[in-house]
Design goal:
alpha+beta; 18% strand; elongated; 24 helices
Amino acid sequence: MDLRFAIRGLAKNRGYAALATGVLALGIGANTAVFTVVNAVLLQPLEYRDSERIVAVSSRNKTTGRTYAVSGPDYHDWRRQSTVFEAVAYWTGGAESIRVGSVAEQVNAAAVTEDFFRVFSAAPRAGALPGAKAGVPEAVISETFRRRHFSSDAEAVGQTLYALQQPFRIAGVLPEGFHYPSKTEVWVPASVFPETPSRSAHNYRVVAKLKQGASVEQAQAQMMAIAQRLEEQYPGDNRNKSAAVSLLRDQLVRDARPTLYLLMGAVGLILLIACANVGNLTLARASVRTREMAIRAALGASRQRVIRQLLVESALLAAIGGAAGLLMGQWCVTALVALAPADLPRLSEIRLDGWVLLFTTAASALSIAVFGLLPAWQASRVDLNEALKQTQGRGLAAGAGGRLRSVLVVAELAFAVMLVAGAALLLRSFANLSAAELGFRPERLLVAKADVPAASLEGAQRAIRFYDELLEQARAMPGALKVAAAFGLAGSGRASNGSLMIEGRPRTSIADMPQAGFRVVSPGYFETAGIPLRAGRDFEQGDRYDGPGVAIINEALARTAFAGQNPLGRRLECGLDRERFPMTIVGVVADVRENGPASAPGPEVYMPCQQHPRPATAMFVLVRTAGDPMRLAEPLRQAVRRLSVEVPVEFTTAETILTEAVATPRFRTVLLATLAGLALVLAGAGVYGVMAYQVARRSPEIGLRMALGAEPGSVLRMVLGGAVRLAAIGGVLGCGAALVLSRFLEALLFEVSATEPVVYCGAAAVLAAVAAAGALLPSYRAARVDPLVALRQE
């Protein structure tokens, strides 16, 4: 009966029902969408068997706490001495040139040790895991790679693919769900490639499976003990080096976690604002039903019975709003996935599931508690004598009901100003990030990523000759101004790094040596990229493999390693690819944000590709153009094909790379700004509702004031003043809460303080403007009240 009565009541008040369910749908839909992403990325286990036992094991600097990749010797010691793991393996890899038949392409490939597939309990859907057959190394491929090259699994097994000019027999095809490391399509045995013997070369990523019953904490304690023994045994290379163990899931989502938690908190505030808004609407509706409630009570209905009826109506609204919110959430999930940065982990796993449905149900139940219970409790507190004396349309006494509505509006405004302040901080941060001085010129710079297969020094030297010929042909293309090539592109963070040995200084432990990034470039790279030369000379064609070693450093390295000294003519060594190869510093260039706009420039060493051919087989070819850089993509592709059909090439621009580098900050800034705008709209609507109700309630009083000589302007100021007072209280509370919570934003900000006063003043000013806009129409109506009509209502 209560449900039928609720349906009839809402049907008679379609405007109220539509507005309330619409506001709830917005709040619940936004929460459903963001929770769907959070659930898939952060909460759900990885799609591997026993995924809660799979861990990542990393080297860790004991001073800074920074984790990084593992050296080969450390890995073998860890594997031999640990007892908490069922299986331990490492992998290394990335984009590689893979050829099947005459088709070459760049594919994510990984070289893995023998226990890699045991860690993940991975079994092929067809064929077998890699083994030894007739002396030919074997590989396994992903289902995605198989579909692209073969019509069936049976056709793929036994075929040959080429990686680094080596043939691999395809032993099997892995299931579609297996893709670790991210987006890998080919797995080959690491035993085929020589392992780096140095403990200072951290080239490998280690994964392991815990034994049944073993915990991450136990593994962490044991690995720290092993690392301590290795530090004592190898005080030079392993000084200050420990180990870190974490669930693989946690490591994969580590960078995404702050952004997703921020968005979850933001949509939670949106839901609270929506509930407060609907609570105000419900209170306003209850105020005109005072006589109805009084008659019910006079006929014997208990207070609990009245509350139950009102809660049934609220539950019906919440159910409709929840269903609409679920549909809206599904649409929003599609939009979120489209807007999300490409490197968001587990992006392909985002979908609605049972946990999302349960969350939506819980959000709907919360909305009942927030917007239904308080108005129902307030409406049930009816004074029968007063209520039955009132004429139709007069509501609850303005006292408690009015105060509750004001409290709800203040809460809305406080939540809104918290979102506005957070969005303003992120907007300022993103503006600073976009305007950051990069140290090079990305405009009109074509970037062609090429990978020349090479398995030996001779092959690497042939690759250098390939790039020399390609650059020569690119120079002759109409519209090409400057050309060069580089291993490690400016602004992309793609390069190598390690320790430096400076001649004339003692060879201390690795931890005490200067650290720097390593870039291998062709002559003309600095001019092409727009990096100023501060001192000395650029690389020349005469800087050959069998000639004296040379290097160019950046200003950051000159400041840190040669403070107050002239670095030109000094000699240094690094372990990039040639041991004991001294290089004379011949130049100093300006600092570049090599790891992207958000990273401060660090020490860098640039080396000529002719002298370091091994890492220079996979290069970025840069072409500075007079017009649209992509117009030269096809001519350059044809030039690559003329030189070799085995070299895959991909094209982009430096500006596109930089855009991708700030994709995550842009994603969270756009979303939080959108949510802040939605919060302001809802808060403005809340102010409008309260002020419109107060004007309607106080019409007789306003009429009396005007009859006694009050000017319309004073009435206008009186109503606007009420709105401003609510905004002031909400602004103060909201700014205070935002300041308290701002410390959680500090790690996401770039060159802006989380307590920037102008941001909070601006948020308060925006809130005041929204409150004034919401109160403007009711104030105008109040100023135009006809005293005779208003007094006649009494």
